[in-house]
Specification:
The protein is α+β, with helices and mostly antiparallel strands. Helix content is about 50%, strand content about 15%. Helix 2 links the parallel strand 1 and strand 2. It is globular and about 40 Å long. The relative contact order is 0.21. Belongs to the glutaredoxin family. Monothiol subfamily. This is Glutaredoxin.
């Protein structure tokens, strides 16, 4: 279960973390690209990202850890916020900017 402990440590260590396909500079799927853009627009400058394509064990186990089947997955202070659609809804409502500021990462 070392990979589950690794995921938990990452999620707990970083106030804002996005598990995505690719990197912010080179996203490998449209959903990951839109999620990163939403977070950047909301002012997330100290966003930790994890490229699940480079970490097959994390990619295989994160859905079990979070009980969320798809990528990207965004966590704040150890709690799953959601994926791309939820991030876009939060951005549109103005909540994402508040969440990012609240996390002290703006």
């Amino acid at each position: 279960m070392a990979v589950m402990e690794q995921i938990q440590a990452e999620v707990e260590q970083h106030p804002l973390i996005l598990f995505m396909k690719g990197t912010p500079q080179h996203p490998m799927c449209g959903f990951s690209s839109r999620a990163v853009q939403a977070l950047l627009v909301a002012g997330a400058v100290n966003l930790r990202t994890v490229n699940v394509l480079e970490l097959p064990e994390v990619r295989a186990n994160l859905p079990r850890y979070s009980n969320w089947p798809t990528f990207p997955q965004f966590f704040m202070h150890g709690e799953l916020i959601g994926g791309c659609d939820i991030l876009l809804e939060l951005l549109e409502s103005g909540e994402l900017k508040r969440i990012v500021a609240e996390a002290g990462q703006a």
